[in-house]
Amino acid sequence: MNDALLAQGVPLVLGDVTGQIDTAWQGTIAAFAKNGVPQSKGRCAGVFPFTPTDPGWLYALAPAERPPAVTAQVPSPPQAQSGAWQFSPAPEVYGAAVEHAVEQLRSYETPLQKVVLARALDYRTAAPVDPMAVARRLGQDPHVTSYALPVPQIRSGKTADAQGDMRWLVGATPELLLDKKGAAVMSHPLAGSAPRSADPVEDRHRAEALLVSTKDLAEHRYVVEYIHDILAPYCHNLTRPQTPALQKTASMWHLGTRISGVLRDADLPCLALLGKLHPTPAVAGTPLRPALDLISRLEPEPRGFYAGTVGWLENERDGTWYVTLRCAMIEGCMARLHAGAGIVPDSTAAAEIAETQAKFIAMSDALGIDLTH
Ligand SMILES: C=C(O[C@H]1C=CC=C(C(=O)O)[C@@H]1O)C(=O)O
């Protein structure tokens, strides 16, 4: 763990948690869970990548007497940007990967039931992107938790500061992975999606169709069962509704199920439980191992922090962690956005291309990218 790679005073924002970084530590969820969080009193914010064996960051926040880094300002409307953007890979290549996955899923020889395949959108503009301004715009949607966290680049041990060598993970997630307060635990997985429509009648029609879509209900069920099975041994009471409910963001409908329980041991460290849960079939697939293998074969580049987990800890015991979705890694004048979709035997390339395109909209709108051109 290294606390010299990030200059003090760099701001971050994560829902209601805003502040300036005092100390940064690098490590995996498992390492922090095993060795403890160095400054375990008080609040830490953090971010971990999709691959659980890759390190992420935990940040101790400076004492609250300091002025908050992000004041409640009226968000400025996104500037129409003159930047260039391109999908990576091209939609046809992503479509071919979906078709390949569907073939695998339909084969009698595979244990695989679902795999989540993601694609990226690369954006380059003339002026540096302000991550805090993007987070404020994203935060206008009351159904998501917006975030902007620095993710230092480690270049020959040099300290990164807000102006220099810094990448920012910025996004607006609708998905709660784990909330732990003493003995009370909750997870609210999402899976199964439909794009919103500006026409209220069509919007309602899409929502109702999603609620009865066998393909989306199957995608959803895998995630709920997985999370339920992980939490069950730790809980003496774990409940969930039998059927999912609709959850919305400004641009998407999702199926969601709230799973709540009471832990046998209220003192269980939050990261110990988080390490068991991440990554779920909402971002990987099921069973986990073959899904991860197929993702590494079909996705051209590692996901990095997309589909990881972002959240905060209150001392070591409690915390709130989200799935790192609807996000971009911003570095100077460049941003890389990611979006993924759950692939099951009934999936089609065209529908999954459309779904991932719709999932880009939250971030592309906040960045001022016009995806219609
Ligand atoms: C993987 C993503 O979404 C997940 C969360 C909600 C719905 C999903 C779906 O319908 O596939 C995904 O599981 C993403 O937004 O990149």
From TrEMBL:
The reaction(s) this protein catalyses: chorismate = isochorismate
Location of the Chorismate-utilising enzyme C-terminal domain: 92-359
Keywords: Isomerase, Plasmid
Record has Isomerase as a keyword: yes
EC number: 5.4.4.2
GO molecular-function terms, A-Z: isochorismate synthase activity
Root EC class: isomerase
Domain of life: Bacteria
Family in the record: Belongs to the isochorismate synthase family.
NCBIfam families noted in UniProt: isochor_syn
Protein name as catalogued: isochorismate synthase
Organism: Thioclava litoralis
The organism's taxonomic lineage, starting at the top: Bacteria, Pseudomonadati, Pseudomonadota, Alphaproteobacteria, Rhodobacterales
